[in-house]
Design brief:
The chain starts with 27 loop residues before the first helix and ends in a 26-residue tail after the last helix. A hairpin with a 5-residue loop joins strand 3 and strand 4. Helix content is 57%, strand content 4%. It has a four-stranded mixed β-sheet, sandwiched between helices. The protein is mainly alpha-helical and 364 residues long. Helix 6 packs across helix 8. The protein is globular, with a radius of gyration of 22 Å.
C-alpha cells in the first residue's frame, strides 16, 4: 500500500462478460433521465430533424485529418487497451479511436452511425496504464449503451445555441433541450464509470484516475479516504441555500463532480449488484427485446425515492418531509433559507415556529 492508500499492482486475472447487456451496469438515474428526456416536448421532432443534418461525416474527416488514429503502429498500447475493453464487454466491432492534442484531460464517445472515441493528449500523459484502462473501458461502455448518439446531438445543439443566442426567443427551446440533455449526460457518466470498472476490475485504479482528473498528477499529495470524505461533506453540509447553489453549479456541467463520481463508484463496487456481475450473473443483450420499459422506469423511480429518503442534503430532506406530510412546511422552508432553525446548530427543525419536525439536527 502507498501512503495515499492505493495498491498500484492489480490482479491481472480479469473476467470477461460474454453477451453482457448495458442494462447490467446502467445507473438507474441514467435510464430515468433518458426517459424524461424523450418525454420533453419537441425533443422527438428536433432529434429526428437533426439526425439527418448533423455533420457526422465532417466530424470523422476532422479527426482523421487533425488527430492521431490509434492502431497497431500509432499509440499501440492504447489500441491494445481498446481491443481488450471490447473483448471484456463483448463489443463485436472495435470503434475507431483518436488522440487529440489538447491541454485539458478529457475523453468522449460520439457518432450517430458508428461511435468514435477521442482522448486528449493531456489525459494520456496524466494517467498510468491501469487508470487509462478504466477510462477506455468507460468510453467503450458509452458505445455499448448507445450513448454516443445523444452526446453528438448535445454537442451540436450547444454550438447552435451559441450561434442563435442573439435571436429573440430563438434560444429558449434549444436551451430547454440542451439542459435536459446535460442532465442525462451527467447520469450517463455514472453508468460509464461502472463499465470502466468492469473492464479494469481495479477499483483503486478508477479512484486514482478520478483523483488525478480533480487534482493533477500529485498522488503522493492526495489520499483516497480524504477525497471520498469531500464527497460526503459536499452532500451533507450546509443549509437549503447551499442546496440551491449546488444545483446552479451543476446545471452548466456535462459531467458530475469528481468526488461525487468517486463516491458513487466506490459504493457500487461494494454492492451485491457488482458482485453478481463478477460472478457471471447479469442481463444479456439477447434478452433486451424482452426487457420491460415499465419495469426499468419503476426501478428508476424507486432509486430516486430511496435517494431522497436517505440523502443528507437539506433540500432532499425537505422534499422527503413534503412527501411524508411533515407539518409546518412553510415554517421549515423559511427557517432553512434564513438559518433561523439551526444553520449548523443542534436546534430542532421548526424551531419556535411550532413545527412538528423530527428534531433532527443540521449537519454542517
Amino acid at each position: 500500500m502507498t501512503d495515499s492508500g492505493f495498491e498500484k499492482t492489480p490482479a491481472r486475472d480479469r473476467r470477461r462478460f460474454p453477451g453482457i447487456s448495458s442494462r447490467a451496469y446502467e445507473h438507474p438515474a441514467d435510464r430515468s433521465a433518458l426517459v424524461a428526456l424523450r418525454k420533453l416536448t419537441g425533443f422527438d421532432t428536433v432529434f429526428k430533424a437533426l439526425s439527418g443534418l448533423l455533420p457526422e461525416r465532417s466530424l470523422r474527416l476532422l479527426f482523421l485529418s487533425d488527430s492521431v488514429r490509434v492502431g497497431e503502429t500509432q499509440f499501440p498500447h492504447l489500441y491494445e487497451m481498446l481491443r481488450d475493453a471490447c473483448y471484456i464487454l463483448d463489443l463485436e466491432k472495435v470503434p475507431q479511436m483518436y488522440v487529440q492534442q489538447d491541454p485539458k484531460p478529457n475523453a468522449m464517445c460520439i457518432g450517430l452511425d458508428e461511435p468514435i472515441i477521442v482522448v486528449t493528449t493531456a489525459l494520456v500523459e496524466l494517467l498510468d496504464e491501469e487508470e487509462m484502462r478504466a477510462v477506455v473501458g468507460h468510453e467503450v461502455g458509452h458505445a455499448l449503451s448507445g450513448h454516443s448518439v445523444y452526446r453528438t446531438v448535445l454537442l451540436f445543439l450547444t454550438n447552435l445555441a451559441l450561434k442563435v443566442a442573439w435571436i429573440p426567443l430563438g434560444n429558449v427551446a434549444i436551451m430547454a433541450i440542451v439542459t435536459a440533455l446535460r442532465e442525462w449526460f451527467r447520469k450517463s457518466e455514472l453508468s460509464a464509470d461502472r463499465a470502466g470498472l468492469l473492464v479494469g476490475q481495479d477499483v483503486n485504479a478508477s479512484m486514482r484516475g478520478l483523483m488525478k482528473i480533480a487534482g493533477g498528477n500529485h498522488l503522493h499529495e492526495m489520499n483516497v479516504d480524504a477525497f471520498l470524505a469531500q464527497a460526503d461533506e459536499y452532500e451533507s453540509s450546509g443549509d437549503l441555500r447551499d442546496s440551491v447553489l449546488k444545483i446552479l453549479n451543476v446545471l452548466p456541467r456535462t459531467h458530475p463532480f469528481t468526488t461525487v463520481r468517486a463516491a458513487e463508484l466506490r459504493t457500487w463496487s461494494q454492492s451485491r449488484d457488482y458482485q453478481r456481475i463478477m460472478d457471471g450473473h447479469y442481463p444479456r443483450r439477447d434478452e433486451d427485446k424482452d426487457a420491460s420499459v415499465a419495469d426499468s422506469f419503476r426501478q428508476s423511480a424507486s432509486h430516486y425515492a430511496e435517494s431522497v429518503r436517505t440523502s443528507r442534503d437539506p433540500l432532499m430532506k425537505l422534499v422527503g418531509d413534503i412527501a411524508g406530510g411533515a407539518g409546518d412546511l412553510g415554517g421549515k422552508l423559511r427557517d432553512r433559507f434564513t438559518g433561523a432553525a439551526g444553520g449548523g446548530s443542534s436546534a430542532p427543525e421548526g424551531g419556535e415556529a411550532g413545527g412538528k419536525g423530527k428534531g433532527a439536527t443540521e449537519e454542517g
